# Entry
Amino acid sequence: MAPCNVSGTYITGCETNRENYKLRKLMVEKMRRDRINTSIEKLKGILEKEFEKHHSSTKLEKADILEMAVSFLKKQHQLQLKSESHFCLIASFLCTCMCLSS
# Structure
């Protein structure tokens, strides 16, 4: 690869490739951070009622939003498990009643 003149200095193709790699890496990292920030903002919007319970005069940090989301999901999971166990108890009771009446 032919050297190129940049501001009066000559750079070999290898150095140009290295610079391109660094620029690509920076762009990919920025896109990754943007995706994370966008997702956290969406999560904050979805769980707005949960955040109202923990209202504060200070701005929520990303870690706060993630911690509250995890807490909310754990509560939802517990409710789902409790609901499923109640359903199983009712179904079992109904099956027992039907078997006894036959």
Summary: The helical segments are 13-46, 48-53, 62-101. The radius of gyration is 29 Å. The chain has three helices and two strands. Strands lie at 4-6, 9-11.
